[in-house]
Each structure stands twice: as C-alpha cells, then as structure tokens.
Amino acid sequence: MMDPVQQEADRLYKAHFGKMVASLLYSFRDIDPETAEDLVHDSFSAALTTWRLQGIPLNPAGWVYKVCRNKTLNQLKKEKRTEALDEHTLAGSAEMRFSESVLDDQSLKLLFACAHPDLSPKVQVVITLKYVANLKVEAIAGSLAMTIDGVDKLLLRARQKIKDEKILLEEPATPALSARLSSVHKVIYLIFNEGYKSSWGTEILREELCEEALLMNKALLDSALGNKETLALHALMLFSSARFRSRFGASGELIDLENQDRTLWNKELIALGSHYLHQSRSDTVSKYHLEASIACLHCMAESFHTTHWKTIAALYAQLLHGTPNPFIALNHAIALYHAGEKSRAFEILHELQRHPFLGQYYLLNTALGKFHHLEGNDAAAKEYLLKAQRQTNFEKEKEFIQKMIDELGDVAGCQLPVTS
C-alpha cells in the first residue's frame, strides 16, 4: 500500500507544481524560471520530511505554498536582493491566502501574466501550458503537433530569455489585458482539448482539465474582458462536455462517435452551449465560432448518418483557410469522406502522412484503416490499423483498434503506398 504522505504529495505535485512556479514568477521580480522550479521542488521535499513526522496539515496545498514563499524570501535575502522587492510585492505575497480554491482563482491572472508581449506567441502558449496548466512536455508536444525535443528546447530558450532580459510575468495594466486575450483564449482551448483527449499518461479523458478550462473561461465571461470569441469558446467546450458519458462503455471501453448512445448526451449542456453560441453572434467569425458550429451540428444530429457532413466539411475548409493546422486538416478529410467526397479525402489523408507529427499520429492511420475497410480493401485496412496500434500508448485505444482489426477477419498483408 502506498505511503499516504507520498500519495498526498504526489497528488499536490501533479495538480499544483506548475501553478506554484508561475505564482513565484508572478509574485517575485528577481526569480527566474529555473530557480522557481528548484524552490518548488525543495518545498515538496520539505513537505515529505515534515509530514512524515508531524502528519499531513489541514490545508496541505497552502502549507507547501507558504513554505515555497518563505524559501524564496530567504534566498533573496541571502543573495541580498530584497531591495528588489518593493512594498507592493511583499504585501501582495504576504497577504495571499493559501488555499486550493484561491489557487484556482489565481489561474486567470497567471494566464494573462504568461501572455507577455516580449515572448513569441508560441512561447507564451508553451510556458502557460507548462506552468499554469501543469502539463507534461509530452502532453504539450501532442497538443501543438511538436516533437518532445522541440518543446524541451523551446522551454530552455524561454527560461533563458526571461532570465537574461528580466521579463516580469506580472498582471498587466487593465488597458493591456485585451491585447493578451487572444493568447489566453488559445491556452484555455488547448487545456480543454488535452483534458478531452489526453495525449500523455494513462487516462484518455481528464475531466479536471476540462473543468478548469471551463471555470477560467467563465471567469473571463463574468469579467469585463470576455468578448464574442470567449462566448463561442464556451459554447464549444459545453458541446464537447455534453458527450463525456457516451465516450466509454460499461467496461471502460472506447466508443467512437458513430456508435455512441446519443440518449446519454447531456441535453442541458447542449442547450446551454446553443445559448452561448447564439450570444456569440458577431460580424467577425473566429475559429471558435466555426468549431462551436461544427460541434453544434454533431450534437443536433439524430444519428451519425444523418449528420450534415457537407456543412461540417465546408466549415472545416473555412477553418483551414484562416488557421492552417494538421489536426483540422485530418478532421476535414474525415468530414469529406462522410460527405461523399472520398477521393479528395484520401488525397488529404495521404498528404498528411508526410507531416512530421501527423505521420506518427495513430488517428490518421486509424482513419485510413477504417476508410479502406469501408471501400472493401481489408488488406490495406489491416496494415494501417496495425500501424496505428503501434503509435498509441493508451491501452484502451490499442484495444479499440484491435477490435477493428478483428472485425476484418483473416486477410493477407499488402504493400502500403509510399508516402515519404
């Protein structure tokens, strides 16, 4: 049986490590990311030692956070850098209440702080996913269609830039908040997506990430900062959340969209999503408007086969025009196939096999396997499905693909088309 102290420390580390690092950067001007990470690590080590002797405190997150703050102050005093801490900074850090609920309230401020204009848009997104959403490098790579090595190098350069240029990750003045809203929307969107379809770990669905994204976006809507894009993003997340219960069977097995029990879809969330989508109407159509419209069409369809696939394909084409993205291209191809434009769908899917990330992405080969099966080419279907099975680390996805392979029966192998 796992040590309860270790178990609680692991839970807190998973949920709060990134936010604690971001909060140190937010509260103390002379702390760089690498030092902040070291201080948080030291605080968790202190927690393990102390809690084993004295027991777990009533507010363990607050305990670690307070130790972390004190270690930071001690280090700055030792380095004789306390003069860099003005009265406002010291008062703000001293008055901060250390509770898990307050940490969640801080998330939105941290999002805006990380969306610093001196950092490139990609760096803004990566450091926010790392420190505010507390995502692993593997998950960030999966979310952004990057390699793990690419994310590691980008984080290394970002830490060095923040340190060398003394970039302050602080909440901007009110007039500057609107300029950072687009970056904040993107991060909330990516946090939700990682929760909806995790790219790393053992759980495919991480509802806590989806809930966190919804709460942060609702906080935006409740403030004076939310705009029509915020409303559309909220609608999109609600439509997606409505299908949570139908995505897994009684034994935890994966169920694809075509075979989901639509009576399990949450009608209240769909109605709420429709309300927010209606409220988001604007002369300017954002990617969130388009994706929410696609999600709405899926939720309103009585069945998979009566879905308005031509409209969905057209919306994906519009999305691609404004936001070129390999994941959108994959979904566009799938929609085209179901809309009857099969040749064009296969053409796009084979083009995507040349993409450095999508070529190694299991859903691309799963789609190719399924469509070849539907076209009567089970030999090619099996090759693609076997390849897809090797490309995922999730056991439930491997089992789902194995079921598709079993349904093909005994087929001979074949030589796949050259795609690179």
From TrEMBL:
Pfam families (alphabetical): DUF6596, Sigma70_r2, Sigma70_r4_2
InterPro entries, per database record: DUF6596, RNA_pol_sigma-70_dom, RNA_pol_sigma70_r2, RNA_pol_sigma70_r4_t2, RNA_pol_sigma_r2, RNA_pol_sigma_r3/r4-like, WH-like_DNA-bd_sf
UniProt domain RNA polymerase sigma-70 region: residue ranges: 17-82
DUF6596 domain boundaries: 180-280
Domain of life: Bacteria
Gene Ontology biological process terms, A to Z: DNA-templated transcription initiation
Gene3D superfamilies per the UniProt record, alphabetical: 1.10.1740.10, Winged helix-like DNA-binding domain superfamily/Winged helix DNA-binding domain (1.10.10.10)
Segments forming domain RNA polymerase sigma factor 70 region 4 type: 112-162
Alphabetized SUPFAM superfamilies for the sequence: Sigma2 domain of RNA polymerase sigma factors (SSF88946), Sigma3 and sigma4 domains of RNA polymerase sigma factors (SSF88659)
GO molecular function, one term: DNA binding
Protein name: Sigma-70 family RNA polymerase sigma factor
